[in-house]
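Q: Sequence in, structure out?
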Amino acid sequence: MTRHSVLKKIFIPGALGLILWGAGSLSTLAEVDTKPLKVLLITGGCCHDYKVQKDILKTGLEARANVVVDQVHTDDGSTKPPLAIYGNPDYAKGYDLVIHDECAADMSDKTTVEGVLKPHLDGIPGVNLHCAMHSYRIGNPNDPVEKGTPHGLWFEYLGLQSSGHGAQVPISITFTDPKNPVVKGMSNWVTIHEELYNNVHVFDTAHVLAHGEQSFEQKTNNYVTVWQNTYGPKKTRVFSTTIGHNNETVSDPRYLDMVARGVLWATGHLKADGTPSKGYGPGGK
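A: Exactly. Output:
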C-alpha cells in the first residue's frame, strides 16, 4: 500500500464526516434562525374599542404563529382618525404583512387612499378586519363600483364592496370551502351579538370562505363574511373578515385562529392541512 493510499483512507472519511457534520449544523442553524414575520397592525377610529382590541390581537397572533406584531394606533374615535401612516406611502417598509383594523369611514382623499394602498400594490400582503371594509370610501358606498375609478380603489383591494350593516344580533357562520387551508377543520359557529356587513359587490378576484346569516325583525340576511382576494398586477394575497366588532368576538379563540391562519396564508406560510409551515408556528416550531 502506498503512502498516498493510506492518507486517502485516513483523510477522506474524516473530510466526509466534517461535511456531513457541517450540513447537519447548517440545517439546525436554519431551523433556529427562522425569523419571525414582521406584522404591522393599524388600529383606531370610530365606533370600536381599539385600545383593548389592538392588544388582544397582538397577544393572540403572537401566541399562534411566529410573528412579531408592531402597532400603529390612535385613541382618536372619529371617522377621520389621524393615523401616522397617512402621507407616507412607505409606511410598511420592512414589514411582511399589514393588518388593517382601522375605522376610517370618512378618509376619502384620493391621494391618501392611494398612499395606504401603495405597499399592497407593491406586493406586501394584507389582512383586513371588520370596519376596515368601511374605510377609505370615495363617493357613495352604496353605488356599485367600477374598476379603475377612485370610487373602486379600496374595494378592489378588498375584493368585496360593503356599505353598511344591520343590528347587533348573533350571526351564524357557515364555512363554504371547508377544504381551504385557512378554515380547514374549523366548525361552523354562532357568534355573540355582532354586525353583519352587507355585500354590494363581490369581485371576481375574491374567493369566498364563509357566509354569515342573521335574522332580525322577521328578516333574514345572508352575506359573505370571510374571503381571500388577489390584488393588483403582483397578485398580492389579501385575507378579510367582516366580523370582529366586539371584544368578546375578537378574543374568541376561533376568531384568533382564523385570523392567524389568514396571516400565514397571505404571507405564504400556511400548509394545505391548515398548519403553519415549519418555523412559523408558535415559538418558531
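Residues 2-31 have pLDDT under 50 and may be disordered.
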